[in-house]
Write a sequence for this structure.
Protein backbone atom coordinates (compact mmCIF):
# COMPACT_ATOMS: atom_id res chain seq x y z
CA UNK A 1 0.00 0.00 0.00
CA UNK A 2 1.54 3.27 -1.03
CA UNK A 3 1.27 6.61 0.74
CA UNK A 4 -1.64 7.91 -1.29
CA UNK A 5 -3.79 4.82 -0.56
CA UNK A 6 -2.93 4.99 3.14
CA UNK A 7 -3.76 8.69 3.25
CA UNK A 8 -7.04 8.08 1.41
CA UNK A 9 -8.05 5.39 3.95
CA UNK A 10 -7.16 7.68 6.86
CA UNK A 11 -9.27 10.46 5.40
CA UNK A 12 -12.15 8.08 4.80
CA UNK A 13 -12.07 6.91 8.44
CA UNK A 14 -11.83 10.49 9.66
CA UNK A 15 -14.84 11.44 7.54
CA UNK A 16 -16.83 8.46 8.84
CA UNK A 17 -16.05 9.39 12.44
CA UNK A 18 -16.92 13.03 11.89
CA UNK A 19 -20.27 12.40 10.20
CA UNK A 20 -21.49 9.31 12.02
CA UNK A 21 -24.98 9.57 13.53
CA UNK A 22 -24.04 7.92 16.80
CA UNK A 23 -22.21 10.85 18.37
CA UNK A 24 -23.84 14.06 17.17
CA UNK A 25 -27.38 15.37 16.82
CA UNK A 26 -28.69 15.84 13.30
CA UNK A 27 -27.58 18.84 11.31
CA UNK A 28 -29.50 21.86 12.58
CA UNK A 29 -28.95 25.44 11.53
CA UNK A 30 -26.99 27.26 14.25
CA UNK A 31 -29.84 29.72 14.64
CA UNK A 32 -32.16 26.90 15.75
CA UNK A 33 -29.66 24.87 17.75
CA UNK A 34 -30.86 26.21 21.13
CA UNK A 35 -34.49 25.47 20.26
CA UNK A 36 -33.55 21.95 19.18
CA UNK A 37 -31.76 21.34 22.48
CA UNK A 38 -34.76 22.65 24.43
CA UNK A 39 -37.09 20.28 22.59
CA UNK A 40 -34.96 17.14 22.50
CA UNK A 41 -32.26 17.73 25.10
CA UNK A 42 -28.71 16.58 24.72
CA UNK A 43 -27.29 13.11 24.97
CA UNK A 44 -25.29 14.13 28.05
CA UNK A 45 -28.48 14.58 30.09
CA UNK A 46 -29.09 11.06 31.33
CA UNK A 47 -31.63 10.65 34.11
CA UNK A 48 -30.09 9.46 37.34
CA UNK A 49 -31.18 6.06 38.52
CA UNK A 50 -31.22 4.26 41.81
CA UNK A 51 -30.42 0.79 40.53
CA UNK A 52 -26.95 0.79 42.07
CA UNK A 53 -28.21 1.86 45.49
CA UNK A 54 -31.07 -0.65 45.44
CA UNK A 55 -28.73 -3.45 44.36
CA UNK A 56 -26.31 -2.56 47.16
CA UNK A 57 -29.07 -2.69 49.78
CA UNK A 58 -30.40 -5.99 48.41
CA UNK A 59 -26.96 -7.57 48.59
CA UNK A 60 -26.46 -6.14 52.09
CA UNK A 61 -29.80 -7.55 53.30
CA UNK A 62 -29.02 -10.91 51.71
CA UNK A 63 -25.63 -10.99 53.47
CA UNK A 64 -27.29 -10.15 56.81
CA UNK A 65 -29.92 -12.85 56.28
CA UNK A 66 -27.33 -15.47 55.34
CA UNK A 67 -25.24 -14.53 58.36
CA UNK A 68 -28.29 -14.86 60.61
CA UNK A 69 -29.10 -18.24 59.07
CA UNK A 70 -25.55 -19.57 59.34
CA UNK A 71 -24.83 -18.37 62.90
CA UNK A 72 -28.39 -18.79 64.24
CA UNK A 73 -28.39 -15.16 65.39
CA UNK A 74 -31.26 -12.83 66.10
CA UNK A 75 -31.22 -9.16 65.20
CA UNK A 76 -33.75 -6.97 67.04
CA UNK A 77 -35.55 -10.13 68.22
CA UNK A 78 -36.00 -11.33 64.61
CA UNK A 79 -34.56 -14.64 63.52
CA UNK A 80 -34.09 -16.00 60.03
CA UNK A 81 -37.12 -18.24 60.56
CA UNK A 82 -39.26 -15.15 61.25
CA UNK A 83 -38.02 -13.58 58.02
CA UNK A 84 -38.83 -16.69 55.97
CA UNK A 85 -42.27 -16.91 57.58
CA UNK A 86 -43.02 -13.25 56.86
CA UNK A 87 -41.94 -13.57 53.23
CA UNK A 88 -43.93 -16.73 52.54
CA UNK A 89 -47.06 -15.53 54.37
CA UNK A 90 -49.96 -14.60 52.05
CA UNK A 91 -51.28 -11.08 52.60
CA UNK A 92 -54.85 -9.90 52.26
CA UNK A 93 -54.91 -6.55 50.50
CA UNK A 94 -58.08 -5.34 52.22
CA UNK A 95 -56.61 -6.16 55.62
CA UNK A 96 -53.40 -4.31 54.74
CA UNK A 97 -55.31 -1.22 53.65
CA UNK A 98 -57.32 -1.23 56.89
CA UNK A 99 -54.11 -1.38 58.92
CA UNK A 100 -52.75 1.64 57.05
CA UNK A 101 -55.89 3.72 57.73
Amino acid sequence: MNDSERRRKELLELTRQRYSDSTAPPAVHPRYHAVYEDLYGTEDELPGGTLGIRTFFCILLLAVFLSMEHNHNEIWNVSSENVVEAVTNDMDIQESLEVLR
Notes: Residues 90 and 96 are 11 Å apart (CA to CA). The chain has two domains: 3-40, 51-100. The helical segments are 3-18, 33-40, 51-71, 80-88, 93-100.
